[in-house]
Amino acid sequence: MSHDIILYDVELTTPNEIWSPNTCKTRFALNYKGIPYKTVWLKFPEIGKKIPEITKNEACRTVPIIIDVRNGNKVVHESWKIANYLEEAYPNTPSLFHGNIGAHFFIHEYCTKRLLPKIFKLNVFTVAEKAGEHQQWFVQTREKAFKTSLDKFVGDQSIHAKAITENLVALGRVLKHYPYLTGNQVGWADICLASYIIFLRVMRPDQFQALIVNDKKAGKEFVEWLKRMDKYMQLNPPAPAARI
Ligand SMILES: N[C@@H](CCC(=O)N[C@@H](CS)C(=O)NCC(=O)O)C(=O)O
């Protein structure tokens, strides 16, 4: 299969594991639109070297970025900008925004501000462990960025778990009435929430079970919605079968 797009993603110790919330948004958007792509995996310390080289911008030090091979190797950085780019550059693919970009952006912002930071606090020790040989690098760079120890940064995990439950209420209520977060069609809003939930599911299956599956108010709705979203939440093309 030819690849129109190269997607840069971040790899921990398990090869081909999709876990990173921001790169998942781009991956799931490409899956949903049916645009062929290949993944280039970077280890954490490689991101700050490789991405500024590609973007020719020292300030761009995160994934996802994409290179659109079909469009003169155009480089686009940052998941929201990539979503907008894909929508414009591939108009004959299923829409992410369905003519209502504001509603999708609102849910993107809501999930990014209200859920992701709490999920990150529940996950950060597991991410550090799974960084393997780069664990120390990961911890040191986070502590420098947060200006405190990871222990202090995380604090009481039960407070974050409670905040996640509270912030899921409104989303769960929507899913009680509609199959997707903005109504009857999958869109960017669903892709954002699914990406943040996959981050929790991979890093903290215990918390995924407690906070999503067993959510007293909307657990059933979240589980049914995740089943509907599952076909987009995949590594694509799938990893080759393990050699015996
Ligand atoms: N707003 C950005 C956030 C990107 C971001 O934070 N990416 C993380 C991976 S999920 C990253 O590249 N981190 C590099 C690092 O922390 O060193 C987006 O949505 O693209």
Describe this structure in words.
It holds the Pfam family GST_N_3. This is GST N-terminal domain-containing protein. This protein is an alpha+beta fold. The protein has two domains: 5-89, Glutaredoxin (3-Layer(aba) Sandwich); 101-232, Glutathione S-transferase Yfyf (Class Pi), Chain A, domain 2, CATH 1.20.1050. It has ten helices and four strands. It has helices at 21-33, 44-55, 79-89, 101-130, 135-146, 150-154, 157-177, 188-203, 205-213, 219-229; strands at residues 5-10, 37-42, 65-68, 74-77. Strands 2-1-3-4 form a four-stranded mixed sheet. Helix 1 crosses helix 8. The radius of gyration is 18 Å and the shape is globular. The two termini are 25 Å apart. Residues 10, 20-23, 44, 47-48, 62-64, 78-80 line the site of glutathione (GSH). Residues 10, 20-23, 44, 47-48, 62-64, 78-80 line the site of glutathione.
CATH class placement of the largest domain: Mainly Alpha
Main beta sheet = 4 strands, mixed
| Mean pLDDT over the residues | 96
Query: What portion of residues is helical?
Result: 55-70%
Spell the H/E element sequence.
EHEHEEHHHHHHHH
CATH architecture descriptor of the largest domain:
Up-down Bundle
List segments where confidence is low: pLDDT < 50 over at least 5 consecutive residues: none
**Rg over CA atoms:** 18 Å
Distance from N terminus to C terminus (CA atoms, Å) equals: 25 Å
Number of strands: 4
